[in-house]
Amino acid sequence: MDMRGRRAWPRRGILPALAAGAAAYAVLYRLGQVSGSTVSERARRLPGDELIDGPSFVTNHAAHLPAPPERVWPWLTQVGWHRGGWYTPRWVDRMLFPGNLPSADRLEPAFLRELRKGDVIPDGPPGTAHFVVERADAPRVLVLHSRSHLPPGWDTRFGAALDWVWTFCLEPDGSGTRMLIRNRGIVQPAWLDRAYRALITPADHVMTRGMFRGLSERVRADRATSPVTRETRGCAREPRKRSGQGVVPRSSARMAERSRGSASGMPIAQQYSGTSCSTSMPESAASSSS
After folding, report:
1. Which strands form 57-65's sheet, in the order they lie side by side?
2. Each residue of 198-233: pLDDT tens digit?
């Protein structure tokens, strides 16, 4: 084989590799937009959609979780930096958030709280990225809003701005939960918006599927160790004294109960029976979001 033939072989190998890489990226990008969600779920108008007009990116992810919404909700009340984390795989945390703690694998009374509009959920060290709670209808709807998820100084150096809404919708699905997570947002300037969508959209698939798996494992383990009755579902049980073992302080147990149960004493199933994720949606808006 002459030298021209030898040089031709690498070129022939590079083109198929590039084509395969482009196809894999296209698949991953599409998964980052819609993984697990149905056409009807993507067309629905959800709480939080009204906060951003004309978003440049919209993603919808959905999955079944093996516990009812009132069992899943407490895990959402403790999320955040140096709190419960986001239940993503540890390798993801180490690679993207090395300064954060591992995601909690149990409900921590010190982190559980009754989320209200205006509450802040940290997503980085103090003074950096964070979310503000726009809506919290336990155990069905959580809407988080951020304008802080940009590298420090980019707002003044590049005129960068980000407006991002993150909605968690939990609906009963048999004995479990159908969870729909939607991201809507816009980034400026245009070059940063394109770069953001190119990088973050595929990563959103990896992150969100990891979060679904993490939540599934945790609520399954919680269900296995915490029998639930109709009247106590979603409420923390008072600790039992056992010989030779410490007892969780009653104040901590009551804190968990306030976060997970009803302040009025009403059974959880009755307290939440009227809450819904759905809102009406104009036909034009439905077509644009799908």
Report:
1. 57-65, 176-188, 161-173, 141-146, 130-137, 120-122
2. 999 999 999 999 999 999 999 999 876 654 433 334
Reply yes or no on whether the pLDDT at 267 is more than 50: no
Strands 120-122 and 161-173: unpaired
Euclidean distance between CA atoms 134 and 259, whole angstroms: 18
Strands (E), the chain: 57-65, 120-122, 130-137, 141-146, 161-173, 176-188
Within 135-189, residue ranges assigned H as helices are 154-157
Q: What is the dihedral of CA 65, 222, 204, 63, to 10 degrees?
A: 0
Question: 190-225 vs 3-34: helix axis angle to the nearest 10?
Answer: 60
What residues contact residue 207 under an 8 Å CB cut-off, 6+ apart?
86, 88, 92
Cβ–Cβ under 8 Å, residues 184 and 52: yes
d(CA 235, CA 107): 12
Q: Are 65 and 251 in contact (CB under 8 A)?
A: no
The label of the residue with tokens 């959880």 reads 268
Q: What phi, psi does 206 have (nearest 5°)? A: -65, -45
Count of beta carbons in the 10 Å neighbourhood of residue 124: 17
Pairing state between β 141-146 and 130-137:
antiparallel
Q: How far is CA 131 from CA 47, 229, 260, in A?
A: 16, 34, 21
On whether the CB atoms of residues 55 and 185 are closer than 8 A, the answer is yes
